[in-house]
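Researcher: We're reviewing a set of sequences before deciding which ones to prioritize for further study. For each one, I'd like a predicted 3D structure that I can look through quickly. This is SAM-dependent methyltransferase. If possible, include the structure in token form so it fits the rest of the review sheet.
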Amino acid sequence: MDSTILQPQIQEFIENQIGNSISKLALQKNPFPDVEWIRILNQIEAKTKAKDKLPTWFNTKNIIYPSKISVEQTSSEPTALYKTSILSGENLIDLTGGFGVDDSFFSAKIKSVVHCEINSELSAIVQHNFEQLNIKNIECHAGDSFETLKTLNRKWDWIYIDPSRRNDTKGKVFMLKDCLPNVPENLDFYLENSDAILIKTAPLLDISAGLSELKNVKTIHIVALENEVKELLWELHKDYEGEITLKTVNINKGVINTFEFLMNQESVFPDYSLPKKYLYEPNSAIMKSGGFDEVAINYNINKLHKHSHLYTSDEILSFPGRIFEITTAFPYNKIEMKNQMSGKQSNITTRNFPETVENIRKKWKIKEGGNLYTFFTTDANNNKIVLICAKIN
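Model: Here's the predicted structure for SAM-dependent methyltransferase, in token form for your review sheet.
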């Protein structure tokens, strides 16, 4: 690892350039000719990315950053902290250590953590950073994690894996077998070394597709940060063959909102109704889970339509998502739209509706933004309707 980037004057320069345009900086003359300009620019860009996502690293002196991509792909601090609520025990091995954010949080709860990273340069950077962060209970091993697991030859309380998609994987749909390491292929070996495995995947992975490749899945955690799903966590326990729990998690300004239910349980049948006084829109983690009927039953609220995934009640309720008060409801037709919406400003959402937001805006000349929230959807009688709302939460 080349530590010339840690020269005090270079670190001060990087700090002073946080947030500035990299493309403009690239055109300037390098004030430090003994260090490649691209290296300095990469540090500025990556540290800028870390400012909000990784404040602990950002606020610690002499941190070395890998590529901007590595910072973009790593867990954020809030999602890393959530993972610690799942784990317990004396030791853990991370087979895909990366920038080490998850491991730094694991180390606060687990006595001994091993960070494996196939890229030796990144492994050295992470080891250096752990020293700056005063973390003393993480061992860094460079090289193939499969070989490291064999060499260490011990029983682990937890194995953690964050497999990366291969570069040649095309399209949005992917399988775990298309990732490195190939978890389905190696799963039996992993389970020989630990009775508990936590696998992190991107939210793009289809839940049913993941289940078709894995076994012994006990819980799937769908983790959203400020209503954007960031990751799926697959919790596996050796020999577990019971029902699978889907746990939705939305972290918003440090507050964690959860909702969970059992997959493939006996059919539940929610009640349907026309719009009442309040409207509820589930958060993105629940939307990913598919637990639309379970939400209605659990919170004792009515669905607008089987496929609309919007809910309504006369009394305001605590709900894992956005809450609105319906001020106006009317059928979607030319006369009503001209009278109620034409030329106005509103935030628009469509649910189970044949037209796109863009098309609606263009057709009725509705401006974006403002304090109104308008839902275009289908009601319990299969009629296309429009709901003008004021946001409560």
